Amino acid sequence: MDVTREADLIEELLRIHGLDNIPLSENLGANFISEFPLLDKEKVQQQVGLSLAAKGFHEIITNSLTKSSHHELIQPDLAFESVEILNRLSED
């Protein structure tokens, strides 16, 4: 046994006697539930992104299969080349 403090002695007594054999008080329990503020998911996502970026990670958001006209609507100020699929199954 490694009994070095009071909590260790209580733990050993409970183990030997059995936790199920200890009578519980009727008043044992919580009489209220703590309230937690609702989290703004976008704010949490931004905070996580900033934390990861500070640690050297990079974020990439892709939508690999979309209409070519959509990329101009998403970020018209960015000049980039899109890769066009030559053997696509549909015009979309």
Q: Kindly, what is the distance between the CA atoms of the first and last residues, rounded to a whole number of angstroms?
A: 71 Å
Specify the helix fraction band.
Answer: 25-40%
- What is the count of β-strands? 0
Q: How many separate helices?
A: 3
Give the averaged pLDDT, no decimals.
Answer: 79
Overall 3D shape = elongated
Structural class: mainly alpha
List the helices and strands and how they pair.
Elements: H1 6-17, H2 41-54, H3 70-74
Written overview of the protein:
By secondary structure, the chain is mainly alpha-helical. The mean pLDDT is 79. 0% of the residues are buried. The protein starts with 5 loop residues before the first helix and ends in an 18-residue tail after the last helix. The chain has helices at 6-17, 41-54, 70-74.
Question: Can you give keywords for this protein?
Answer:
elongated; 92 residues; mainly alpha
In short:
The chain is mainly alpha-helical. It has 3 helices and no strands. The protein has helices at 6-17, 41-54, 70-74.
